Amino acid sequence: MQRLPLPMGALTTVFLLVTTLTAQAAPVKVRAGWVGAPASIIPFMFAKEGLTRHNGQSYVLDPLYFNGSPLEITAMANGELEVGTLGYSTFSIAVLNAGLKDLKIVADEIADGVGDYFSLSYVVRKDSPIEKPEGLRNKVVATNAIGAGAYIPLDVMLRRSGLVANRDYRVVETQFSNMKPMLLESKVDLATATLPFIYDPELQASMRTLFRARDAMGVTALSFWVMRADFIAANRAAVIDLLEDYVRATRWFIDPANRTEAVDIIARFSKQPPERIASFVFTTKDFYRSPDVLPDFLALQRNIDAQREIGLIKGDIRITNHAEPGLLREATERIK
Hints:
The protein has helices spanning 8-25, 69-77, 88-96, 151-160, 179-184, 201-206, 213-217, 229-234, 236-254, 259-270, 274-278, 297-309, 325-333, and strands at 28-34, 59-65, 84-86, 103-112, 121-125, 140-143, 170-173, 191-193, 207-212, 220-228. The N and C termini lie far apart (55 Å). It has 336 residues and is α/β, with parallel strands linked by helices.
């Protein structure tokens, strides 16, 4: 039987259909930034088989390490990153300075100041005469970076005590790993102590907590996932699959029943002794992680407002314009 040739219009339709189906079948590449682990589980969330069930199917996760979240902002602005992990201090920079006004907040990582969980600590030497924040007048305080998430509660607390930076006290910047020697050698009068450095036995024996971040600002949104609106719109199904896997992985890692295996995974990834990690990770000695990875949008708005009040940002940001909880709700409903 002789085959009749298809009309050109029909051929075009067939070609477009095949092309569309092929494109739909290909997993979406998702480059996800991370700065610190285990604060972020992105680099090892697929280490336990069966947690990220959609990875390699509807999406392929590509974890990318960054030295700091400001570098993630640049990558997102250049179209080189699909998932950014920002905190309240860098989110405002991304929106107001980098022009990423279409950023959507889709999931949470860690928060400070929730219940009895760990809160960033501002410490003095145990023998220091400083008993209250106002005692830092004419003193030297250490932070990791002016304007960073660890600096803002310090600034807020000292302003509340009548002290203004570089007028009433001096600020020096240094890495968190340098805080202990600078404090113990009396190069600074107050240091910023965070995880895991605060649990150093020598520091613990020689320091006294003057106040914590929660005392200055309550709950602070230290790290959360952001995506650009056009990426979500073009890949909604894959995004929901990714969030479903992220919720499942988070719940598994924070479940006490899985603690030994979870600590072992992190130890292998970070090349640290398991006992060092086990002393705090996924306990109340660690930052808080929501089992639903749902950001506290009200707290985040307060964090943004605090930045504006102390003059770190000039513009106004309404978190309601950036919150995207519907994706996460849909993803969570799938998990049995």
